[in-house]
Amino acid sequence: MRTACLAVAALLCFAAAPARSACFDACFGSKITAETDDIAVKDAATACRLSCDAESQTALDRQGLGEQVKTCRAHPISLAEFRKVRGASPSYRVQSNVFLWDVKNPFPDKVLTKIEVSTQTMELNDLAFVGTGLVPPSSTATFVIPAFYEGYPAVRFSAKVSAIWACDLK
Fold first, then answer.
1. How far is CA 121 from CA 10, 63, 135, 150, in A?
2. What are the residue boundaries of the structural domains of the chain, listed by start?
């Protein structure tokens, strides 16, 4: 009976798992091995983000939205919109000093283009990291901050996504 309950719980967890960025995961997974050092992880994450952003840009170009996205002036989204994105997206992760966040864009009329992650230094001074990316409407993509040096253990507890920028599509 206990085994059956555990199996049902596992199935529910997998069914409820949030969407991940297939492009980034496929690219990143193909470049990383057990022997990969931190610098190679950072370089791979950056290269994969650039490659996936180019794929997203091509898809937007095909939809006739590419030029609008290239020339838009991004703005911070509202608190209600921020909460909607956070609610739709899984938690971020930090691997080998690289910040990765698979973001689900729940909006049909916005392209997410930038995030800000705030934390503190050992002297308790505020510090902000900015990550750029391209998350088309109603899609999932990964924001990458390649030099997210945690420095000391408390940083991972004080880090938070503090702002998200978007371009409105008309």
1. 39, 43, 30, 9
2. 18-168
- How far, in Å, CA of 84 to CA of 91, rounded? 13
Tokens of 113: 């283009």
Q: Name 56's Cβ contacts closer than 8 Å, sequence gap at least 6.
A: 23, 134, 135, 136, 139, 141
Answer yes or no: are the C-beta atoms of 132 and 146 closer than 8 Å: no
Closest CA to 169 of 105, 103, 115: 105
Q: Give per-residue pLDDT as tens, 79-93.
A: 999 999 999 999 999
For residues 59 and 79, what is the distance between their CA atoms, to the nearest angstrom? 28
pLDDT digits (tens, 9 = 90+) for 96-111: 889 999 999 999 999 9
Q: What is the pTM of this model?
A: 0.82
Per-residue burial over 35-49, b = 16 or more CB atoms within 10 Å of its CB, e = otherwise:
eeeeeebbebbeebb
